[in-house]
Amino acid sequence: MARWCYRHRLLVVLLWLAALIGAGAAATSAGSDYANTFSLPDTDSKRAYDLLEKAFPQTSGDTDTVVWKVEDGKVTDGAVRSRMEPALKKIAGMDGVGEVVGPYSGERGAAQISEDGRIAYAQVTFNKQADALPKELVQDVVDTAQDAERQGLQVELGGQAIQRVEEPPTGLAEMVGLGAAAVILFLAFGSLLAMLLPLCVAVFGVGIGDFGIQLLSHGTNMPDLAPLLASLIGLGVGIDYALFIVTRHRRGILRGLDPEEAAMTALNTSGRAVLFAGGTVCIALAGMLVTNLRFLDGVVIGTTLTVVLSVLAAITLLPALLGLFGTRVLSRRQRRKLAAEGAETTSEKTSGLAARWSAQVQKRPRRTAALALVVMAVLALPVLSLRLGTVDQGNDDTTTTTRQAYDMLAEGFGPGFNGPLQVVVEGGDSAALVKGIEATEGVAQASALPPAHGVSLIQVVPTTSPQSKETSELIDRLREDAIPEAGVTAHVGGVTAVSKDFATVTGDRLPLFVGTIIALGFLLLLLAFRSLVVPLTAAVMNLVAAAASFGVLVAIFQWGWGLDLLGLGKEGPINAFLPVIMLSLLFGLSMDYQVFLVSRMHEEWVHTRDNARAVRVGLAETSRVINSAALIMVAVFVAFVLSGNSGAAMAGVGLAAAVALDAFILRTALVPAAMHLLGRSNWWLPAWLDKRLPHLAVEPAEESERPAPADGASEDRAGAGAAGTGGSAVHGFVRDADGGPVEHASVTLLSKGGGRRLDSVASLADGSYIVSAPAPGTYLLTVTAAPYGARAQRVEVGEEPLVYDVELRSGEVDVVG
């Protein structure tokens, strides 16, 4: 498939362009119909809503508020009334508005004026819930109310419907994320065209995904958070997946392969890993369905669609673009060196820093693991005070009308006024219940509306804000004490009660969800690496990363540390849906890094049966790409703080923290340190289980990426040579007279008489090397490195890999045979 896409590159690019333009045109003409359906069956708040909708159909829709405040005088002054009453009358006459109750309508209205007379509000009740209202109607309400403003008279609006029309400008977070990713890619590749490749893949995958979500919103309940989360995840995985493939492609060209063969090898190795990683992300997202939270169904559909499209773009569009760019994916300096010196001297080298760090982890695994655990434990401590809930308009940006209306109502009528509770009484006398509610701790006021169809509605205003823990406790007191004591059948509803029920159900179902995705991850890694310890270690690491990342979220969003710096309003509870979304995404993304890291270790282990070397080489050769990929994801995720959506901002910060901790602490420190301590048991699998498990190869051997031994090309990846040969190996260290490592030494394995070269490699920064032997026997091993001399030694290779260290001295020549 990759070869076909490479050779028909213009057709492939045109097909993707047509898909993007077609999806965009269809989505633009159809518009969107997002629906935030938080209600849950078999909950008290849902039963309250059903009764309210049946008995008060004209008031069962969304209730929003128009709030006004005067700088001087009172809201009852004639100059103020002459501006506000006509506006409220015009709003009441709009099609879709059930009723408007203002402060100028008798005794009931007088309660809608603050004690100091400077703030008043009117309640606008629509005939539908906020999600079902046309935005044009809501915008007309906003414009009509705010047209009444004048100097000294401020008019603001609040409510769910009003918030929907105050969506921030779309695309800003995505553009900032792409810009940050572009800078990181350019620094990593040194080539403008190579930088553009991952960005193009991400743009096509996310673009078509967002248009598809917009179209799907007409056929299913799709929350307006879905496209934001899909963009966030799609940009991260799309750029990362393309980065892995382009890195492998560039390495193939530097080793002497022509661009087409390099692209085929890259897609047949890293492309397979991308398919595996993308599949694990989709499976992790689908794990959210076990919670049976219908609100998340749209999130699962939207994010999964975008991830699938990003993977398809990486394995079809990317090879086509590689065909268009040819060798220009290399920097000018690399192309000049390749033309002048050939493949042997232009191989990409493992960075000295990565190799030195890998050697340091091997040298002090206990200290490294202990330090990493301490850091993660400290960051995880705040999670002990985690409180799930739902943020409200008090978390909106201070420039929005919803936030200003929220603050004005809190100033004039108390903080609990922004989240009134609705106690719906089914039959019976509500008078006794009203008295009981008024006497309940935490209630500021309670008032009953005239009954209809045997149903009474009691509006309850708490003394605390909707987000506070005390309000949640008040709902429990009403349900457990006040209502049973009154001897009536009643249910507590309203937005605040719905949010509490949603958080309760989410918390109850979270253990099932966590168990499902951990078990799934264990099974996938068991099949991939045929080990019990590796997947068990990964499961523990995922839980550690989740705890630490949620600790960061609690500290920022619940405790308020740094919220002013982020411009995200005030502190509050953690969104109830966020743990499910974050855990599923963290599972999928961390699997990418785990597979990329451990697959290289596993390859080295199969080749040498030396666990210490396998862990050291695997970490040295993969840490740079893992860190680059993680930096890109962190940049993309943090950029969603600019989205203006508190839920997306919270998810962005949480995922950025999770990816950073996972890549920079767990995968580059704690995981390799733990694997050094565990030794050979890392790769243990009972023989009976090994026989029964199907074989799953994440990446095939890189046979086509390896030049024939006769061409003299050296390799920078110690150990690649022996993969798949069926023979044995010689490995060890090249050191100087003082015991220091010798980097880039040429190590060659020759036939017994020295007439035929069998394998050749360059030593890594820590001096390590490995060459493959086709079969047990006697061979000649030669080692040369400037300014040192050359050494040659006969070696006897048996069935097991031979460990052989070489010491080089300046000016020495040691010729054997």
UniProtKB/TrEMBL annotation:
The chain crosses the membrane at residues 228-246, 273-293, 299-327, 369-388, 510-529, 536-561, 573-591, 625-642, 648-670. This is MMPL family transporter. It comes from Streptomyces griseoaurantiacus. Residues 211-324 form the SSD domain. It is a multi-pass membrane protein. Belongs to the resistance-nodulation-cell division (RND) (TC 2.A.6) family. MmpL subfamily. Residues 1-25 form the signal peptide. Residues 703-718 have a biased composition (Basic and acidic residues). Keywords: Cell membrane, Membrane, Signal, Transmembrane, Transmembrane helix.
